[in-house]
Specification:
mainly alpha; 0% strand
Length: 136
């Protein structure tokens, strides 16, 4: 899924939560967590240099998100990305580099996408070119 579609889904996650989560308490917990994660993501994605206040607000939003996330998913919800956010590693990078936009993987992902298109449309996917029974 490309980045713009993923952003659109995350931005409208509350609608999905409304339809798919059955209990009202869990529904509110998920909505709170998504709002906090979205707020943090907006700060992290900005192109201008972060201020100390931006970074502190980012980490506060992540901490609020993480508290609810752990209640909802326990240890199984702590992926590598969740760990990087909740442990403060990302905030540490934000303080050090003042902007993470230059380290974006967008260019690499786009290049990888082009290679996949080439492979699946213009090759035989590693198949047997010129293979015949007689060659055996």
């Amino acid at each position: 899924m490309d980045n713009n579609r993923a952003r659109e889904i995350v931005a409208n996650m509350e609608d999905l939560i409304e339809l798919s989560v059955s209990t009202s308490e869990r529904k509110e917990q998920y909505k709170f967590a998504v709002r906090k994660l979205n707020a943090a993501t907006l700060i992290m994605r900005q192109r201008k240099d972060y201020t100390d206040d931006d970074i502190c607000l980012f980490q506060q939003n992540i901490d609020d998100f993480f508290q609810v996330w752990v209640q909802l998913h326990s240890d199984s919800g702590c992926t590598n990305y969740i760990h990087m956010l909740s442990s403060g590693h990302i905030a540490e990078y934000m303080f050090r580099w003042r902007n993470l936009h230059r380290f974006s993987q967008q260019g690499w992902e786009h290049f990888n996408s082009l290679l996949k298109v080439f492979f699946f449309r213009r090759t035989q996917h590693g198949g047997h070119v010129g293979y015949s029974e007689e060659a055996m």
